[in-house]
């Protein structure tokens, strides 16, 4: 083997052009596979960073139309009673806080947790200790490693010091390890749940307030199937035992936050409502990665096809090279070398090529994937786990070895075939006939695989173009927004909150670069949605369902002007729509069509209950078109807008500005100045343009489309090189034949036509097989498409024509060169 290896190195070094082309071709395929496998490894294969993470589950409440939301505090007690199923059940509630006393005021994401959370996760702080049960109602805090480093300079004496969250003092008792993220990566501070409950005692007994995310560790020997059955029985028992509430006026946050404006969740005033149909138990790992596994498997299939095309190209290169070495192989056989010995030598060379390509491919994959994740950091979950490790390097090594054998076995078999006398006759007719047939087969395979990838990429590109052309119903250009969460201790009531925002808006509206400024409880496309549920039969007795869900937002009068949303009927809000005035609302067409089909909704009234019972009737004063507020690819939902000044809580709002100069990001300083003028101690949350929000909304689609398009272009490029190589090889081998044809009167166009017809037959077979394969494969893309069918005829036809054009171009260049052959030179040896 060492002799074979030394000889392989010398042989490949003597042909640097061949070696470089083969290594680059294979490196593209191996690199693409390594990149996707590193993502699969980090996202799907690596366990969560908690001991025994495969025994951790998330428990959610399920409701009307399958909506998932948190559990209530009484639900948590009932789940903990299932001691035969769980060794522990913990809960967490996320909420933002204004952190002061550590530099400039800053908005941080915090989590109130039950004292046993870290025992359930089996994680200990890096320094200090976690919360003891006796400290459940003590104002303590655990810091994330990142916050400890950035805001406290990695101070080893941080333990025992106090930090201020929303004006309240919390004693730091520990710092979590680097990389600890729970329930998600944005959380920077953890506080005891009991301290939150002491501030909001009403939620401890109200089963209708779903504000907790529950996580549990399964007891030894207990399966998830058994737990699913037990919690289903628990839900049935609770539903039968509670009288239930109508659910009218319940406000649900689909982001895990509190009711609109921040603060404590509003109690529903009832037991387990008709919205609560049961519990959903999911492995914590599955909950963390969502539906990403299907997308990664599709991308994995795509890169496998790229690697197969690369292998076919490399095999064609080796077949062409074997022709030049056939006399060498014949001499070796004549000197006594057996076929197995020759095959081993040739496979050593192909494997060495693949290993070199694997080294280059690992380098390419690392840089390429890092670049893509830097552009779309939220396209995949668990991105911090993605990277090179022993498993990824082992995968790359294995792929390289298998690839070396895969593309080398057929050329080695052909090159080592018996036929010494025939091989030694340099001009033996038909010496390359079998080799030509094998090369044609490989070209057909390349075209087939390339077309499958090209069709898939074409579908995603068309889908993405359709998505970008969606009219959301509002103008997304030149709008900048900032999230402002007021410190409850400084702004406890609606009057103080209204005064702060009025002063801030007045300052912003006076800025020369601001065309208009407004407030909103929820921002379109932000992913932050507040829902109101009520009984629509109080308005429309024949409504087919007992519950209607409305997307709700509290806004200031200039909101529709800022977003350029036209009022189709009625009016917008005015400065007179304040506390104490007649409650009013603006609705969209979906709401009007469901509650008052075929009627004018202006002047109609509906009543939405609240934590203290039914509220005052709300008069509809305006109607707007349906908007795509949740996301561009989601169908419009019923929506209701109410004046922020008429609400009791404006603790958390978005301020949105329309830039008059077309440069919204230049107004970031104006927002900071306006907030600090109103209150120097007030922090500012996210600051984003609406176009950035659209970019976040479409990041996953962009990531998938970009990757699959890159792989398809790689496949087409490799197919082009393969067709070119086979045609150039054929021209070289058929020089005398072409010379005879030209000597007998064939014109250059006839020679070009001959070669192009031959290649076109190969390509046509490959395109036909590729279309058939794509018809079956593209069904897997259905969930990734938007307003494009998996068997879209335009995409199939367009990609087929594109690939045929590329193939003809790859054929025309070497065929054109064949017309330059001098017939006398070609016939000299006859």
Radius of gyration over C-alpha positions, nearest whole angstrom: 34 Å
Low-confidence stretches: 243-274, 426-431
SSE class: alpha+beta
The global form is elongated
Task: Report on this structure.
With 830 residues, the chain is an alpha+beta fold. Helices cover 47% and strands 17% of the residues. It has 24 helices and 25 strands. The strands form four sheets. Strands 11, 15, 16, 17, 18, 19, 22 and 23 form an eight-stranded mixed sheet that branches. Strands 3-4-9-6-8-7 form a six-stranded mixed beta barrel. Strands 14-24-13-25 form a four-stranded antiparallel sheet. Helix 9 runs parallel beside helix 12 and helix 14 (433-468) crosses helix 23 (793-818). The chain is elongated and about 105 Å long.
Summarize the structure.
This protein is α+β, with helices and mostly antiparallel strands. It has 24 helices and 25 strands. 45% of the residues are buried.
Short descriptors:
830 residues; alpha+beta; eight-stranded mixed beta sheet; six-stranded mixed barrel; 17% strand; elongated
Strands, helices and their partners?
Elements: H1 2-14, H2 16-45, E1 56-62, E2 68-69, H3 73-80, E3 86-100, E4 106-113, H4 117-121, E5 127-128, E6 140-143, H5 145-152, E7 162-165, E8 168-175, E9 187-192, H6 193-199, E10 213-218, H7 224-241, E11 250-253, E12 278-283, H8 284-289, H9 292-324, H10 326-334, H11 339-375, H12 390-415, H13 420-424, H14 433-468, E13 479-485, H15 494-509, E14 514-520, E15 530-534, E16 548-555, H16 559-562, E17 567-570, E18 584-588, H17 589-595, E19 605-606, E20 609-610, E21 613-614, E22 618-624, E23 639-643, E24 652-659, H18 668-678, E25 687-689, H19 690-697, H20 699-733, H21 735-743, H22 748-777, H23 793-818, H24 823-827
Parallel strand pairs: 4-9, 6-8, 16-23, 18-22
Antiparallel strand pairs: 1-2, 1-10, 1-12, 3-4, 3-7, 3-10, 5-8, 6-9, 7-8, 11-15, 13-24, 13-25, 14-24, 15-16, 17-22, 18-23, 19-22, 20-21
Helix pairs in contact: 1-11, 2-9, 2-11, 2-12, 9-12, 9-14, 9-20, 11-12, 14-20, 14-22, 14-23, 15-18, 20-23, 22-23
């Amino acid at each position: 083997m060492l002799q074979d290896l030394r000889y392989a190195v010398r042989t490949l070094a003597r042909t640097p052009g061949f070696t470089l082309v083969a290594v680059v071709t294979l490196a593209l395929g191996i690199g693409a596979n390594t990149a996707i496998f590193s993502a699969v490894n980090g996202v799907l294969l690596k366990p969560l960073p908690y001991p025994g993470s495969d025994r951790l589950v998330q428990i959610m409440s399920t409701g009307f139309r399958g909506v998932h939301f948190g559990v209530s505090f009484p639900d948590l007690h009932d789940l903990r009673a299932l001691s035969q199923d769980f060794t522990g059940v913990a809960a967490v509630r996320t909420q933002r806080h204004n952190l002061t006393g550590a530099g400039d005021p800053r908005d941080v994401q915090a989590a109130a947790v039950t004292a046993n959370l870290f025992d359930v996760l089996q994680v200990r702080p890096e320094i200090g200790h976690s919360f003891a049960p006796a400290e459940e109602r003590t104002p303590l805090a655990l810091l994330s490693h990142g916050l400890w480093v950035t805001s406290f300079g990695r101070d080893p004496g941080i333990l025992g010091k106090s930090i201020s969250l929303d004006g309240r003092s919390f004693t730091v008792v520990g710092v979590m390890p680097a990389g600890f993220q729970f329930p998600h990566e944005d959380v920077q501070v953890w506080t005891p749940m009991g301290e939150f409950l002491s501030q909001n005692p009403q939620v401890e007994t109200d089963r209708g307030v779903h504000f907790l995310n529950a996580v549990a560790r399964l007891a030894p020997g207990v399966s998830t199937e058994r737990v699913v059955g037990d919690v289903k029985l628990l839900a049935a028992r609770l539903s039968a035992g509670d009288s239930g509430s109508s659910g009218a006026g319940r406000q649900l946050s689909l982001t895990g936050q509190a009711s609109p404006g921040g603060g404590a969740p509003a109690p529903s005033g009832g037991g387990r409502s008709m919205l609560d149909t049961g519990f959903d138990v999911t492995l914590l790992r599955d909950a963390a990665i969502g539906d990403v596994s299907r997308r990664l498997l599709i991308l994995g299939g795509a890169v496998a096809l790229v690697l197969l095309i690369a292998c076919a190209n490399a095999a064609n290169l080796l077949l062409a090279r074997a022709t030049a070495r056939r006399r060498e192989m014949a001499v070796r056989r004549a000197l006594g070398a057996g076929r197995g010995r020759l095959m081993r030598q040739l496979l050593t060379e192909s494997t060495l090529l693949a290993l070199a390509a694997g080294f280059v491919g690992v380098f390419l994959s690392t840089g390429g994937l890092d670049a893509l994740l830097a552009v779309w950091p939220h396209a995949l979950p668990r991105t911090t786990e993605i990277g090179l490790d022993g498993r990824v390097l082992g995968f790359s090594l294995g792929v390289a070895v298998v690839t070396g054998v895969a593309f080398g076995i057929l050329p080695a078999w052909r090159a080592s075939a018996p036929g010494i006398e025939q091989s030694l006759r340099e001009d033996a007719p038909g010496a390359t006939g079998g080799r030509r047939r094998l090369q044609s087969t490989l070209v057909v395979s390349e075209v087939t695989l390339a077309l499958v990838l090209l069709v898939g990429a074409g579908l995603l590109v068309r889908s993405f173009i359709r998505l970008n052309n969606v009219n959301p119903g509002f103008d997304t250009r030149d709008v900048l927004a900032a999230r402002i969460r007021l410190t409850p201790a400084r702004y406890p009531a609606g009057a103080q909150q209204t005064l702060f925002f009025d002063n801030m808006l007045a300052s912003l509206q006076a800025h020369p670069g601001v065309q208009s400024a407004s407030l909103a409880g929820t921002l379109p496309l932000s992913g932050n949605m507040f829902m109101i549920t009520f009984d629509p039969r109080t308005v429309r007795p024949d409504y087919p369902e007992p519950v209607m869900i409305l997307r709700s937002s509290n806004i200031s009068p200039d909101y529709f002007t800022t977003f350029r949303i036209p009022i189709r009927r009625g009016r917008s809000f005015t400065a007179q729509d304040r506390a104490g005035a007649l409650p009013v609302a603006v609705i969209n067409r979906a709401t009007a069509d469901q509650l008052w089909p075929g009627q004018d909704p202006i002047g109609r009234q509906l009543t939405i209950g609240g934590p203290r019972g039914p509220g005052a009737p709300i008069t509809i004063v305006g109607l707007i078109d349906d908007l795509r507020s949740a996301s561009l690819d989601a169908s419009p939902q019923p929506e209701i807008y109410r004046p922020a000044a008429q609400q009791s809580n404006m603790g958390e709002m978005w301020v949105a500005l329309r830039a008059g100069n077309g440069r919204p990001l230049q107004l970031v300083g104006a927002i900071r100045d306006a907030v600090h003028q109103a209150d120097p101690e007030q922090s500012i949350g996210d600051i984003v343009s609406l176009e950035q929000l659209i970019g976040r909304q479409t990041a996953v689609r962009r990531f998938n489309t970009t990757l699959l398009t890159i792989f398809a272009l790689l496949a087409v490029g490799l197919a082009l090189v393969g067709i070119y190589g086979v045609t150039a090889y054929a021209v070289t081998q058929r020089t005398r034949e072409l010379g005879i044809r030209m000597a007998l009167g064939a014109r250059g166009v006839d020679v070009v036509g001959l070669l192009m017809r031959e290649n076109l037959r190969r390509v046509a077979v490959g395109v036909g097989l590729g279309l058939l394969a794509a018809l079956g494969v593209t069904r897997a893309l259905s969930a990734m498409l938007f307003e494009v069918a998996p068997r879209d005829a335009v995409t199939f036809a367009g990609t087929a024509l594109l690939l045929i054009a590329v193939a003809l171009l790859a054929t025309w260049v070497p065929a054109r060169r064949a017309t330059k052959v001098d017939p006398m030179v070609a016939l000299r040896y006859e």
